[in-house]
Each structure stands twice: as C-alpha cells, then as structure tokens.
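Data card: per-record layout.
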Amino acid sequence: MKFIFVCPENNKIFESDRFRIIDDRGILTDGSGNKTWDAKVELLSSCPFCGSKHIFDVNELTCPFT
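The structure for this 66-residue chain is written out next.
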C-alpha cells in the first residue's frame, strides 16, 4: 500500500510504500465523539525531493480520496 506524502521542505507531493507506523497510541475520541488515529508515519527511504527521512503525524497525510 502506498501513502501520499508532502515534502515539508519543498511542498511537493510524492507516494511511497516504504514507511512504518510508529508511536501508535490507537484511536482517540474527543468530547464530541470524533475519532482520530494518534500515530506517526516514518519514511524508511529518503524523500525524493530533499533527501531527508521525514516523520509525519498521520493527520498530516494527504487523503487519496479528496
């Protein structure tokens, strides 16, 4: 499965299947009943635009269905 990422240095979009989920704290529910996944995604290979190995909060990822 590929995720869509945005390079924070160059603001360019790329896809990668070279990642892992880290700091997974599960699903959080706020006072209104809204659920969010509290985890991070770490790239296992370098960003194609800046060469860094970024770590993203899952809420920073671009949804492929929008």
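Known properties of this structure: The chain has a mean pLDDT of 92. Residues 20 and 42 are 5 Å apart (CA to CA).

See the next section for split statistics.
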